[in-house]
Design goal:
2 copies of one chain form a homodimer. By secondary structure, the first copy, chain A, is mostly helical. Chain A folds into 2 domains: about 1-60, Orthogonal Bundle (Multidrug-efflux Transporter Regulator, Chain: A, Domain 2); about 80-135. Chain A is about 70% helix and about 5% strand. Chain A contains 7 helices and 3 strands; from the N terminus they run E-H-H-E-E-H-H-H-H-H. In chain A, strands 1-3-2 form a 3-stranded antiparallel sheet. In chain A, a hairpin with a 5-residue loop joins strand 2 and strand 3. In chain A, about 15% of the residues are buried. The interface of A and B includes residues 80, 95 and 100 of A. The first copy, chain A, binds a DNA duplex through helix 2.
DNA sequence: GCTTGACCTAGAGTTAACTATAAGCCTTAA
DNA sequence: TTAAGGCTTATAGTTAACTCTAGGTCAAGC
């Protein structure tokens, strides 16, 4: 069975070895085994789990909450409902973030137009008396 | 002309007065005037500018870079191109964030399904030998 | 056998973005 | 005229998520 060293995993997941050790210290990787001399030995399934952790991080979840999830995973079937609820909550959260980004994008695009027009005119003075722009 | 105190602005923009003073200290609000006794006095146009600042923050722009933009604004027409370029860059950045969120959402939705199925079965053992899940 | 390089831990340092405190100044209502 | 409430500054503290350093172990190649 193929295994990986910490620096291979770091490369693969675009993280640093510092970050991986930090995650371990925070209890995010209780599943990673060691060689007889104490080096971390990552399995394929550990890589998968780390990808899920990265995904949860991408939703904006703080590490302490990710740790709760990992703990639930270790507890087995008894925590299936909590974990399901957590992912539903994450889903709602990501939807809200997307909506916020869409609104942000609207303003940014408006500004792009604003500056495009100003650049063509050579000045933004044209907007200074423009009530519409003032409300943006 | 209607003006606002710092706490009115904080309420309006869902920020704290601490945050507003911090922004001021960081040079994000050189336009805000003062009363004779030294209190900040916000105009409508200051609120608009703060909303643009909030928008830039929502794109993930660090405060120091927002300060650069504010400085450019003070320098007038000579910096129109820089400001335009900056907004184009922000736009690309937000698009990338949206794409990343979409990918994240796919994984989260997959996980929601996973747990829904596991809950219905009462166990996640059904997945333990499932090669497909291991690669997620 | 000894050097090199990758790994280990514990713990200190960094950074961004707040968040709070202390001490003090105006204005206003009792 | 004095007490309260909202403002001011300077500065210290907090938090999350790293990021780095020091000092050490271990396995492989010369």
């Amino acid at each position: 069975m193929k295994t990986y060293t910490i620096s291979e995993v770091a490369k693969e997941l675009n993280l640093t070895v510092y970050t991986l050790r930090y995650y371990d210290k925070e209890g995010l990787m209780p599943f990673v085994e060691r060689t007889p001399s104490g080096n971390r030995l990552f399995k394929e399934s550990d890589l998968s789990a780390l990808k899920v952790i990265e995904c949860l991080k991408a939703t904006g979840m703080p590490i302490k909450e990710i740790k709760n999830f990992i703990d639930w995973c270790s507890e087995g079937d008894a925590t299936l409902q909590q974990r399901y609820d957590m992912f539903l909550e994450r889903k709602a959260n990501v939807e809200a973030q997307m909506e916020e980004l869409r609104k942000t994008m609207e303003v940014i695009e408006h500004k792009c137009l604003y500056y495009k027009t100003a650049l063509e005119a050579g000045t933004e003075e044209i907007y200074k008396k423009d009530i519409i722009e003032i409300n943006n």
